[in-house]
Design goal:
heterodimer, A: mainly alpha, 3-stranded antiparallel sheet, 3 helices, 49% helix, B: alpha+beta, Rossmann fold, Dna Ligase, domain 1, 6-stranded antiparallel sheet, 11 helices, globular
């Protein structure tokens, strides 16, 4: 589970796929997750990182995280 | 005391370039964009001669873009009036190069290219075989021959033939004019209406084409006439008008499209600019919907992305060798806009009355 190499992201949460011309925006938390994905950090580590940093229910966050990942997969932004 | 005059020496060439397609309207001709790109090239200074058909083509009145405009005969008038008119203009303007930008006029310009050359006017156009091979009515066979995906189609000469085409290809069908315009027809009534409209506008045959659902990608490419691709820029349409034209687009990086354009240019030995209109199906397959035998209206984006195709064409037309471009900027966006150009009836009456401005 890794963001495709050619995908450009910005700190402001902008995501650009140069292969298709599609662009997206994410909120700051989404942007932080993307940055972790770019650094090849795995699911478990990202969830632990976010849950230790923010006041969030772990079970709820895992659900939201998986939902976010499926959006990235649907939009062809992750490596197989 | 007079100030000393600063003398500057330059080895820039001064070129006189004639350009058609000054109709920068809602479905624009490429002329103004071609000129903009040429003017931006630092390697030559240019005087731009506009060739117009109608007195209200905006480019005629854009005096920072076009230095002087002459009206020329409609393509339907044939090659003799066209050649005679260009010869007459050439006597005044000493034209180095002419760049035609309309599909409908290209046949005539290709035909008179040798005569123009004798006058000292260069062109950089495909030959008639190349021109005909990519014609809408031939494209399916062309695709089969060169193993490129092209949607199946049927040529329609009578409205009664539509039902057989619909039986073979299924609705929705794309009903296309011989030169321009296309409509998606979901029913036989819509197909018949489109047939009559397109027949009245562009003549026969009409093309009924299989509908491919997907993402529209256009590719601007420039061939040297020997099978080499000098430049290729793929653009994803971001905003599409009701006429199917890109109102905004972005350069993308996908070798599927650049390779496709290179394959087309190699197969045809294409000489000059062209545009491949591609539909990428949901399965990711690139179908060539059309090949336009000239630069597209969004051609300035190629210059903005680092591959100035019109300027490269000018150089090749004048006999210079141009090395193929290898990189371009991905993520360059164009957004077309409208602007009310104000002129005066005195200008309008000059072009209307004298045929030049």
């Amino acid at each position: 589970m890794r963001l495709k190499k050619n995908i450009a992201t910005s700190e402001a949460g902008f995501i650009f796929n140069p292969g298709t011309g599609d662009s997206y925006s994410s909120n700051p938390l989404g942007s932080e997750i993307l940055s972790n994905l770019k650094d090849d950090i795995d699911r478990k580590a990202i969830i632990n990182l976010i849950c230790s940093k923010y006041d969030v229910d772990k079970i709820q966050f895992e659900k939201d995280f998986d939902d976010f990942i499926s959006q990235l997969i649907d939009n062809n932004l992750l490596d197989e | 005391m007079n100030k000393p005059v600063k003398m500057e020496l330059t080895n820039k060439r001064n070129l006189v370039i004639a350009v058609t397609g000054l109709n920068a309207i809602d479905s624009p001709g490429p002329g103004v964009a071609v000129i903009r790109a040429i003017r931006e090239c630092p390697d030559f200074d240019v005087r731009i001669i506009g060739f117009s058909y109608e007195a209200l083509e905006p480019g005629i009145y854009m005096h920072d873009i076009v230095d002087k405009t002459y009206r020329i005969s409609y393509p339907s008038a044939g090659i003799e009036p066209l050649f005679d008119r260009i010869r007459e203009i050439h006597e005044k303007e000493n034209i180095d190069l002419v760049i035609p930008n309309f599909d409908a006029e290209l046949f005539n310009f290709i035909k008179i290219a040798p005569q123009l050359k004798n006058l000292g006017i260069h062109t950089f156009l495909p030959d008639l075989d190349q021109f005909e091979a990519r014609h809408k009515v031939e494209l399916y066979e062309f695709g089969k021959k060169h193993k490129m995906l092209v949607p199946a189609d049927r040529l329609i000469y009578q409205v009664s033939e539509l039902s057989k085409a619909a039986e073979d290809l299924q609705y929705p069908l794309v009903i296309k004019g011989k030169y321009y315009d296309a409509t998606i027809a979901y029913t036989s009534e819509q197909a018949q209406k489109a047939f009559h409209q397109l027949k009245a506008k562009w003549g026969l045959p009409i093309i009924a084409q299989e509908f491919i659902n997907g993402t529209e990608i256009n590719i601007a490419a420039l061939g040297d006439g020997k099978g080499n691709t000098i430049s290729v820029i793929p653009m994803r349409k971001l905003y599409i008008t009701d006429k199917g034209k890109a109102w905004a687009g972005i350069t993308i990086d996908d070798s599927l499209f650049t390779d496709l354009a290179r394959k087309f240019i190699k197969a045809t030995n294409w000489r000059g600019g062209c545009e491949l209109e591609v539909m990428q199906s949901k399965e990711g397959k690139p179908y060539i919907m059309e090949v336009n035998p000239r630069f597209p209206a969004w051609i300035y984006l190629t210059a903005a992305a680092g591959q100035n195709q019109p300027a490269s064409l000018v150089k090749m037309a004048l006999g210079q060798t141009v090395e193929p471009f290898t990189t371009y900027e991905v993520g360059k966006i164009f957004i077309r806009y409208s602007w009310d150009l104000i002129t005066d009836v005195s200008q309008f009456q000059i072009i209307s009355g004298t045929g030049e401005l």
